[in-house]
Every structure is written in structure tokens, then in C-alpha cells.
Amino acid sequence: MPPEPVIDVAGLVKHYHASDGTVVRAVNGVSLTVDAGEMVGLLGANGAGKTTTLRMLATLLRPTSGTARIAGCDIRTDPVGVRRRLGYVSATTGVADRLSAREIFTSFGRLHGLPDETLPERVAELLEQLDLTGCADRPAGRLSSGQRQRVSLGRALVHDPPALVLDEPTNALDVIGARDLLDLLARLRAEGHAILLSTHRLHEIENRCDRFVIIHGGGVVATGTRESLVADWIRGRDGELEEAFFAAIRKDAAISEPLP
Amino acid sequence: MTYRGQPSSLAAALAIARRDLLEFVRDRRTLVITLLLPMATYPILALATALGLRTATQEIDARTAPAPIHVGLSGPEAARFAALVERTLETTPRSERAGWPADVALADVSQADAESLLDRGAIDLWIVAQPGLLAALRSQRTVPIPVRVSARQPANITLREQFLAFMRTLGRDVTRDRVTSAGLPTTLLEPLDVVFEGDPAAGPPPLKHNVISTLAGGMLVLLTVLTLTGAFYPAIDAIAGEKERGTIETLLIAPCRISDIVFGKFLGVLAITLATLVANVVSIAATAAVAVRYLPQGVVAALPEGALVQATIATIVAFCGMAAVAAATCLAVTTASKSGKEAQNTLTPVILLVSAVAGSALLPGVRTGPLFAAIPFAGQVVVARSALGTGAEEPSGGLALTLAVAVSLLSSLTVTWLLLQLTTLTLTDEDVLFRGPDVAGTPLHRPARRRRPNAVQALLPLVAGFAGLWYTQGLVPDDLRWAIPVQQMLAVLAPLALVGWWQRVDLRETFSWRWPSGDALRSASVMLGAILLGGGLFLLGAAALLAWQGGTTSAEARQLSARLVALIQGQPRWLAWSLIALVPAVCEELLFRGWVLAGFVGDARTRPRLWTAIVMQAAAFALFHLLPERMPQTFVLGLVLGTLVVLTGSLLPAVACHLAHNSMPLAILAIAGDVPGLAAAIETAGSSPAMLPSSVIVTAAAAVAIGSGLVAMGVRAWRQPLEHAQ
């Protein structure tokens, strides 16, 4: 029997009411899995439902229906268990300007119940891993964007979660910053973390993810490896992932409901 | 090695508090405002006061101190009149010279010079002793003594009063002469000689001016406002600031409950608030110690040392409670805000409102009592004021003071708990957390459609109801036949309809307006149980009220019960029943067990949240009844009614229970006729110290027990509350 996927999303739905009274189907039945040691890219245009899906996984939003399990914990019935096993960083996640990386890691280590004896050791290890040792005691407000994003990631890693959910983590970064971050994620994948990463910058992750899930209009329209997606969607021609992506969402646009 | 653990609730809260404090301490500018503002405020205030008081007292002293009066005498009998004056000056003992001038200096002046002497101020008064004056004084007539004052000098009231006091003594001496010359004893003039026996200890001399007590009261209000200011910045930073920086998500996904996060935030804000309070108290104490030297004598009455220690402890304990309320208030108000600026805009009017509440504690007639002590922000000022003896009363101490402090502290803790619950509910509300960018006037935009109101919306009809009642008081007729429907319309139905329309909630979901789920037998069991519960609770409540108060109720409560009894006796039964039972039961259930409960429960129907919501709506229900005597009873009733709705998923059993509760007075009258004592016990008890018969109490307890059993039997989903309502 194969091991249970670390991230196992089954038919997640999130509807809400817009201010004009209409029902917005932000996420309309998303299912996907991510195994340990696997990095999956969640692709979609703005408004496709990426952020809402990931927020539900992070227990920040309650699903209208469907559910998901993170390392065996159900997001509906055991949100605290999920939070113990999940690291979450979004594009809008900030860092406390007045605290240093070391202080941020230490405070979140305490919040995750790390014992005081091992906490400094873990924090030092994390600073080393994220290449932040040189600026560990500088207020985060005086760090570069790349460094801040690594602090944000470190904050999500302090409790060594089996699952990592990252919502457009490279958005604010330049080319070099983005590459550094993705290299770091590759190392984490190699260590056995299950990583679910959303982005709309396909070229960055094209060769880095094991599999891709393309969502559009709140639902999954295609899923597979880069090669299988290219093969399925731009049949007979050798092409880029981007072309497969466009082909998938164009086909879907014809049959799905219009975007809100 | 695993790094995954789960901290206890307290450990999580402390970790958050520690992080927040570290962050706040780094914010030097706010820290300076929070802590150094009080250090500067009080010395400035004290210096200004000392200087002002000194000038004021000097002026008063100069005006009231006895000064010599220069009297010019002319006329043929001037010398003989002067002799009379001299005699009175010499013979009157010191103890009888109250109100006199320091001296009466006489000068012979010629009639030609007198006017100019008066105008120059060389003499204060001028008397012309006409021929026959002395003879007239020896007669039995009243003798006019015209006294001229200067038309140019300003009128000196003190001088005139002091001269009159002297002349009254002179008049007494003249009377003695008349009595003696008539051959009568002078004891004729003194029929009484009052002697105080025993050895009364000399009390403290009365204060010359009452300025300082007014000032101390003002100082306490200032302390309240500055303590609140201490909570202002950290509270804004704690949640709205985190939202602005994008760090709130990182906390919400920490492995602890949202209530632990809120509690941690509260502890952080409380620590700064308490530090502000300490800075204020230290500044007040240091300033007072220095300022006493600058104050004129006679304006400060020293408290006995024991009383001062007691008063200081009482004040500090009460104000620590207030610091908690202040921290929780600021957090609750700013939680819905998305940025620091938005939070400031919301919080500033609240600070002003609270200052008005605190200031009201200085009004004359506000006395220490459990009632006043329980009011947040005003109660603490009342307690401190009476402990320090700066009000109209003597300093209170001992048991009364301990009770007042305990009530104040208990009220503070309760209010704090309620506010933290509100904060938790608001923080987890998805619409609030992930709403769009801050738009000026967001609250004025009609919100998105939703199933049930949220925690903030839950309170809107209550606010609107109180406002409606207050501003239309003049329109409510005296006649209860009209007053009850009009009040229910203004306080409940109209606000509910307005807010319900505006908020666009699912009315059926919100008001649980459906038959209890389950088959007919179970539903009937629930309804019957609810009716028994309502009736039993009324009798138990009335018995408890009578036992507790022994018939002493406030004037308002007596007036209300008298009017209700008159209504019951003076109207047809159906009309009285509609007015007392039917209309309030339906209206109040719609508001409290419908709207308010649904708002506090929200969409996350976890068990702790359901219980919290029940307690919060019961508290709102109790407060809504205004009369303090009724609050314990209405609170318990609110708890039972809320539990009924949560367990059955329907409002109807609660309506039935409320209906039975309010119908009891009528039922009693119908069954027992006007039994003396019973009628008085109706509705919050009357004025006679009656006691319900024990058989009635036993029956009521049995009704409550059987009713609970019937409800329990009828509720199928006892283990999964409200699952069917998901």
C-alpha cells in the first residue's frame, strides 16, 4: 500500500457572497495530492482560485464543502493539528519590521512548543540553512526583499513541517532572489518535505516542479508532469509548458462559467 | 529530531505577549508618548494649580481678613457716642467678637472735611452724632444711625459686615443699659445658657476651600483617560498593525486556538497599559509630594495614615481592573480595522466616549454602591474617590470599601472577558479578515449577503434600539396599554427590521424560525418542557429576589411593578396577557435568541463558541432590562432561552418558554385571586417583604426539573448541537 500523500485535497469548494449579492464560486471542487519529497506547482491566472485554495489548506478560510488532509489531519475537524504540520507563506505575508530574524524564529519556535533548551540550536540551524547568519540580529525592516522573504520562509519552517504551502513566494523578488529561493525549496524537497507552490510565473518553476496542477475558474482543468501536459495539450508539437497552460485554460474557458 | 510540539494555551499566549512586547518596546516614539506623557502632564497640572490656588487664596484671605475700620465722628454728641464705642471695645470678651473688625479707630472730623476724607480713603465710614442721640438710646425706641460711605470708593462688603457685627454688640450693650435703668436684671436678656457636656475631641478644622477635592476627582478622570491612552497605541499595533504589516496570517496559522492568540495580544497590551498606569501613579505621587509645599495652607486635609494606605490600595486594585477593561476595549474596537490609520479613526471617538463616562463619576450625588462601582471606567473613579474621601462623603473604609472594590474588579473581569470574546469572534470572521482594501466609509457600504450576522452586526440592533428609545422618550405615552407596544416597536422591531434589511442576512437561518427538528412527539416534548421551564423559572426568580432583597426595591422597580399590577387588574385578561407576555416574548426572542445569538455564534459552530455566544447574548439581554434588580433573573432566563435555541435549532421553544415566564403573573392572579403578597411579588417583587410559600417554590423547582427532562428527551441531536442547522 503506497504511503498516504502528505497533502491530500479532496473536492474543496469555497463560495461566498459578493457585495452585489451574487454568489462567487471562488473554488469549485479542487482535488490534488502532494507526496513527501515532491514539489507540485499550482498554476492559474489571477482570480483562478489559487490563493483561496491555499488559504483553506492553511485553515485561514473554512471550506464551503469538501476537505483536505495535511499529514493525516483534516482541515475541518483538526485545524490545530494541521497548523502543527504545515508551513505557509503567501505573497502578502510580511515580517515584523522591528524584530530580527533570530527573534522572529525564536518567538514562532515558542509558539510551536519547541522546548527552550533546543530552541537556540534550531534557530541557529535555520539561520545557517537560509543563509541569514550574517544579518541574524538586524531588524527585519532593514533587510533586502530577498532576505525578508527568506525570513518569512524560515518562520514557516521553524517547526520542521512535513508540508509546505507557498502562495506566490517569488512575487516580490528579482530574478536572483527568486532563483535563490527556488534553490532553497529544491533542497527542502530533497530533505523530504512535500511542497505545494502556486505561481503565475511559469518559466521560473517549469524545470523545478515534479508535477503541475492547472486551475481555472475555481476548478482543476489539467494535471500532470511538464512532459505529459505538453504532450496532452499541444499534441504532436514540441513546446513550452506555457503553451500547454494556455491551451488548457482556453479549452476550459469555453465550457466553464464566466469568471465573477 | 522533531520540532513539532503543541504549547499549552497559556504558553502560546505568553509567547505572543512576549513577542508583542519586544516589538512594542522597539517602537521608541510610541513608548515615549505612552510613558512620558503622564510624567509631564501631572507636574504641569500641579504647578498651574498651585500657582492658581495661591493667587486665589491670597485674594480670598485679603478680602475676608479682619482689618481695622476707621470711623469719622462729627456732630455735637460725637464725644459721648465715642465713649459708648470705646466701652464696647474694652468690655467685650474675645470669644464674643466673632465677625468683628480688627479694631474700630475713631477720629473727630469736621463736617466740612468728612466728604473728602471719605473719598481719599482716610476714613472708611462717617457718622454724625446728632443732638439727642444719647437720650434716644436711653429711651425705648429704635434709633436710626445713618452711616455714610464713600460714593467714590468701591463698595466693601466685608467692611460693612464687620462693622455691623460690631454695632450689634454695641446694640446689646445699649439694651443692657436700658434693662438696668428699668430696674430689671440683665439675665432677662439671657434666658438660656447652653453647655456641651463631656469632652468632645476636637475634629479637624473645616477646609477653607473645597478646590482640592474637585481637583483630585479631575485627577482620577485624567488617570482614567491616560490609562486608556496607554492601551491606545499597543492595541492598534497588536492586530490592525499586524494586518497592515501582513503578519497576522503568521499568527493565525500558529498551532493554538484563536482565543489563545487574542489572549496573548491582550496580555501584551495589558502589560503596557499597566506600565502606563504605574507611570501615572508614580508621577501623581511624586508630584503631590512636591506640590503640597506650594499649596497654600488650609486647602489640604491630611488623611490619617491608615486610611491613606487603604485608599491607595483600593484605588490601585480598582484601576488595575480598569487597565484590563481599557486594553480589551481598545483591542475589541480595533480588531476589525485593516490598518493602523483605520484603527486610530475608530478608536479616537471611543476614547472620547469613555472620557465622558469617567467624567460622569464626578457628578454630585454619585455615591459608592455596588451599582456605580460596576460601571466600567466610571466605577473605578467612584471607588477611588470615595476611598480618598474627595467626594461629598467622608472617606469610606472597611467592609463597604472592600465590597465596592470587589464589585468593581468582578465587573472589570466580566467586561474584559466579554470584550475578548467579541475580539475573537471578529478576528476569525472571514469577511472581516479578508475584506478588500480600506475604503473610507466602509461601514456605510451595504455589506455582502451572508447567512447570519457577524459578532459586530449582532450588536447593531441593540445600539439602534437604545438610541431609538432614548430619542423618542417624549413620544412614548404614559399609558402602559400603548407604551408596551410602542416601546417594543422602537426598541426591538424597528431596529431589527432596519438592520436586518441593511445587512442582507438569511432571515430564516438567522432567526431559526422553524419547528424544532424531529418527529411530532419529540417536538411536543420540547415545547412542553420549555413551557414548564419558563413558568418554574419565573417563580424561582421571584422567590430569589424576595429572599435577597427582603422587599426593599428601588423606586423605579416599585413604580414599574405597581403599573404592571394596575394593568393586569384594570384590563381585560386577553389584553393584559398580550401586552405583558405575548408581545415581549415574540419581540425579545426575535432580537436576542434570533439575531444576537446567531451573530455571536457565526458560522463556526464549535461547542465552546456556542457556549460563549449563549453567555454573551444572555448578558446583553440582562443589560437590556436596565433595572439592576432584574438583571440576575433575566441573565439566568437568557442563558436558559439561549440554550434552548442552540439545542433545538429552533426559536419556537424559546418563545414558548418566555411566554410561559411572562404569563405567570396573570396565571397566579387568575388562580389565586389577589392574594396579599403574591400580587406584590409579581414582576420584580413589590414593596412588601413577602415570602413565597414553600409549596410554590417546591412546585416551581419540580417544573424546572421536569421541563429540563422533557427538553432533553426531545432533543435528538443532544451530542451534536445544531448539526442539523449547518
What is the element layout, followed by pairings?
The complex is a heterodimer of chains A (260) and B (726).
Chain A: E1 7-17, E2 23-34, E3 39-43, H1 50-57, E4 65-70, E5 73-74, H2 79-84, E6 86-90, H3 101-111, H4 119-129, H5 145-157, E7 163-167, H6 175-190, E8 194-199, H7 202-205, E9 211-216, E10 219-224, H8 226-233, H9 241-255
Parallel strand pairs in A: 3-8, 3-9, 6-7, 7-8
Antiparallel strand pairs in A: 1-2, 1-4, 4-5, 9-10
Chain B: H1 9-26, H2 28-64, E1 68-74, H3 78-91, E2 103-108, H4 111-120, E3 125-128, H5 133-138, E4 147-148, H6 157-181, H7 211-245, H8 248-252, H9 258-294, H10 305-334, H11 340-359, H12 370-373, H13 379-388, H14 398-428, H15 430-433, H16 455-471, H17 480-503, H18 507-511, H19 520-549, H20 555-570, H21 573-601, H22 607-624, H23 631-648, H24 652-672, H25 678-681, H26 694-714
Parallel strand pairs in B: 1-2, 1-3
Antiparallel strand pairs in B: 3-4
Short description:
The complex is a heterodimer of chains A (260) and B (726). Chain A is an alpha/beta fold and 260 residues long. Chain A has helices spanning 50-57, 79-84, 101-111, 119-129, 145-157, 175-190, 202-205, 226-233, 241-255; strands at 7-17, 23-34, 39-43, 65-70, 73-74, 86-90, 163-167, 194-199, 211-216, 219-224.
Walk me through this protein's architecture:
The complex is a heterodimer of chains A (260) and B (726). With 260 residues, chain A is an alpha/beta fold. Chain A folds into two domains: 1-85 and 162-260, 3-Layer(aba) Sandwich (Rossmann fold); 94-160, no CATH class. Chain A is 35% helix and 25% strand. Chain A has helices at residues 50-57, 79-84, 101-111, 119-129, 145-157, 175-190, 202-205, 226-233, 241-255; strands spanning 7-17, 23-34, 39-43, 65-70, 73-74, 86-90, 163-167, 194-199, 211-216, 219-224. In chain A, the strands form two sheets. A six-stranded mixed beta sheet of chain A has the order 6-7-8-3-9-10, with helices on both faces. In chain A, strands 2-1-4-5 form a four-stranded antiparallel beta sheet. In chain A, helix 6 links the parallel strand 7 and strand 8. In chain A, helix 3 (101-111) crosses helix 4, helix 3 packs parallel to helix 5 and helix 8 crosses helix 9. The longest helix of chain A has 16 residues, at 175-190. Chain A starts with 6 loop residues before the first strand and ends in a 5-residue tail after the last helix. The relative contact order of chain A is 0.17. With 726 residues, chain B is mostly helical. Chain B folds into three domains: 9-58 and 209-435, no CATH class; 66-189, 3-Layer(aba) Sandwich (D-Maltodextrin-Binding Protein, domain 2); 511-725, no CATH class. Chain B contains 26 helices and four strands. Chain B has helices spanning 9-26, 28-64, 78-91, 111-120, 133-138, 157-181, 211-245, 248-252, 258-294, 305-334, 340-359, 370-373, 379-388, 398-428, 430-433, 455-471, 480-503, 507-511, 520-549, 555-570, 573-601, 607-624, 631-648, 652-672, 678-681, 694-714, and strands at 68-74, 103-108, 125-128, 147-148. Chain B has a four-stranded mixed beta sheet, sandwiched between helices. The A-B interface holds A 16-19, 21, 55, 58-62, 80-81, 83-86, 88, 90, 92-99, 103, 107-115, 118, 122, 139, 152, 155-156, 158-161 and B 1-7, 11-12, 15-16, 18-19, 22-23, 26-27, 245-247, 249-257, 430-431, 433-434, 445-450, 504, 603-604.
